[in-house]
Amino acid sequence: MPPLEWWLYNGSRxxxxxxxxxxxxxxxxxxxxxxxxxxxxxxxxCVLALIFVGLYMARSxxxxxxxxxxxxxxxxxxxxxxxxxxxxxxxxxxIVTLYLALKGRFNGHKRVAPYTAAVWIFVAASGWxxxxxxx
Length: 135
Ligand code: HEM
Known about the structure:
The chain is mainly alpha-helical. It has helices spanning 3-31, 35-62, 73-102, 106-134.
């Protein structure tokens, strides 16, 4: 693997994993009543997700996509398909969740946020699984 592809591949793998872990940490923090650190950690999760999208797009434009052709291909395709659909679903969910929080509308935020967190964690975990298939 050329060095640039290696950096883009491992950078996207690291950032998507850390963004999922940050969301888990943010949920734990708010459940413990720590709203200030919930806000900070969720902001970190959003920044990591944005960096991931940048690295992922750069890799997709510069290098051919990795293709898994092993004996688990049907499972791989199922995970890839659900990951792709859920990552598209995640974008408006994150925008609405952030908007409600930043406007101080925390009742609305509390209603939608558990779905956002669940979808986000699924996208990060399935993304990591796809990386594992391709490594
Ligand atoms: C997209 C990023 C975010 C996600 C995924 C998220 C997720 C969550 C979740 C799962 C809860 C718990 C809901 C429940 O009680 O069941 C929550 C509560 C809360 N969030 Fe967020 N959050 C995000 C960003 C923010 C931001 C940026 C702020 C601050 C500006 C914020 C402020 C709060 C507050 C104050 C609560 C507690 C509301 C209450 O208990 O009355 N969140 N959030």
